[in-house]
Amino acid sequence: MLTSSCTAPVKDDIEYEVRTFQLGFGDKQTPYQAAPSPEVEKLWRDLYSTGIPSLIPLDAALQLPNMTIPFPHDEEGRYIISLDVFHQLHCLDRNFARHDETDEELLGMDHIDHCVDLIRQSLMCNADTSVLTWAWDIATKTNVPHVDVAHVCKNFDKIQVWAAGYSAHGREFDAEFETANDTL
């Protein structure tokens, strides 16, 4: 039987928690919804920057369902990966968190299309089945869903701690260094 992220190198470090999502409207907005600023930009980047990319030992790389390559010139012979959550957060940040319009990464429609579809696939794959309840809203005089309900979540802080321990962040990665014959 398959289980969620059954071969992910982080699987033994994942903890689950019950978390109530923040509503995201009015005075219940999260800091990620604030107007663009260097502080907001840093908040977004801090979510994913330590996790792109990560380096894992050969024994962990051999357990992956997909092949990966060794990190070029790594003295320990580690292999390069990224947990997809960090890629997804990067995509969300690059395309929807209001950034400086001159950012070159925002200009490519192929990149935007890739990111939107990646997030769609992840939402469908993870299929959060938390139950939203409905109630009468006096202000709008309509029935509205309550999104501020309990969810069972992976503890993201623990995943970030794992990623920081395996981070290749700050190391130069030569994407043009041929490793075709070294793929696991």
Automatic annotation (TrEMBL):
Pathways per UniProt: Mycotoxin biosynthesis
The family this protein is said to belong to: Belongs to the ustYa family.
GO cellular component terms given for this protein: membrane
BP GO annotations: mycotoxin biosynthetic process
Predominant location: membrane
Origin: domain of life: Eukaryota
Location(s) in or outside the cell: Membrane
Keywords on record: Glycoprotein, Membrane, Transmembrane, Transmembrane helix, Virulence
Membrane topology, from the record: Single-pass membrane protein
InterPro entries the record matches: UstYa-like
Source organism (scientific name): Sporothrix schenckii 1099-18
Pfam family, one: UstYa
Name of this chain's protein: Tat pathway signal sequence
